[in-house]
Each structure stands twice: as structure tokens, then as C-alpha cells.
Amino acid sequence: MNKSKMAGCVGMAVCLLLAGTVFAQGKIDNPMYQSWSKFKVGSSATYKMVSKAAGTTTDMEITYKLLELSPQKAVIELKTVMFVSGQKIDTPATKMDYPAQVDKAGSGGAAPKEMGKGEDSIEVKGAKLTAKWIKTETNVSGSKTTSTVWSNDTIPGRTVKSVSVTQGSTPSESTMILSDYKVVK
């Protein structure tokens, strides 16, 4: 899989973490910062992700780790290991800065439309976690993406599971589920 496809898959995972966010004018608390702000440096969350696009299935292991935390920003390390056609591909770790506050102004795209929400029990590491879920739909350039994200505030980064299906000229689907996490005390 080329780097642009991998970047797209990782980007989709990050976008899923923002599902349901509504944009307007002014400054707001950044949901990405908030999802890490109550954890200590070293806390992490690891996910197994399966993406299908353009006839290719890609398995990935994605680890997010809190490297720095201040009142102004959270710095998260993203480490990805891909498995494509039986080959393991380690990608260099990258850092993402999440400022504590962001502009409410829109991203230039269509805001997701909420399609439903509720609560489910999801098993992680042999234990049942109660997770709130929200289902959203976004229509952009003739493609419709339906995403469901399950979250729990006791998990670093909050995300427990996400499922995204895109219909249109480039159909794709991805499922990401929490496989491990560490909360530094």
C-alpha cells in the first residue's frame, strides 16, 4: 500500500474521533485535547484497524500515546504498523499537537448529520466497557460516509470502536477497535 493510501486510512481514523462535532464561529474547547487532558503522560490506546478500499484489504495496528500535556496543548505520538498482502510495514512515528482551544469556524466541508446515538457494552481486554455511540452521515462531492463511533471517558483518547462506510465513486469501509490501553496513574 502506498503512503498516500496509508495516510488516508490514518486520517480517516482521526476524523472518526471528531464525528459529531459541530462547527460555528469563535473559540471552543478542542475535543481532541479534551479526550487526552485528564490522563497523565505515557497513557496510550492501541487499536486494530481493518480497511477495505480499491480491492485492497489493509490490517493495521495504531497506537496513540500521550507524550506531553500542558494547559495549552496535548502532544500525541501516532505509531502505525500495517500488514499488506502478508507484509509487515512499520511506519515512522509521527507527533500530533492538539491545542486546548480551536476555532469554531468550519473545516470547509459539510458538518456531519447526526443519525442516532445510544449506549452499548463492548468487550476490551476481557472486560466489558459501557460505551456511548453516535452515528453520523456526511455527504461530500457525491460520496456518502456513514460513521459510528463508540466512546468511553476512561479510555485515553476516548474512542473504543469506530466503523465507517463510504459509498460513491471510491467506496471504502474501515473498522477500528480498541485492543489495548494503558492509563498512567
The helix-strand sequence is HEHEEEEEEEEEEE
| Domains, number | 1
General shape: globular
Which regions have little confidence, pLDDT < 50, spanning 5+ residues? 2-24
Strand content: over 45%
Number of strands: 12
Quickly give the CATH architecture.
Beta Barrel
Largest sheet: 10 strands, antiparallel
Query: Span between N and C termini?
Result: 38 Å
CA radius of gyration: 16 Å
Assembly state (oligomeric): single chain
Please tell me the overall pLDDT: 87
CATH topology: YmcC-like fold
Total of helices:
2
Classified by CATH, the class is Mainly Beta
Derived structural class:
mainly beta
What share of the residues lie within helices?
Answer: 10-25%
Descriptive terms for the model:
2 helices; single chain; 12 strands; mainly beta; globular; 12% helix; 185 residues; YmcC-like fold; 58% strand; two-stranded antiparallel ribbon
Concise overview:
With 185 residues, the chain is mainly beta. The chain has a single domain (3-182), classed as Beta Barrel (YmcC-like fold). It is built from two helices and twelve strands; from the N terminus they run αβαβββββββββββ.
Structure characterization notes:
The protein is mainly beta and 185 residues long. The chain is built from two helices and twelve strands, in the order H-E-H-E-E-E-E-E-E-E-E-E-E-E. Strand 8 and strand 9 form a beta hairpin. The protein is globular. The N terminus is likely disordered.
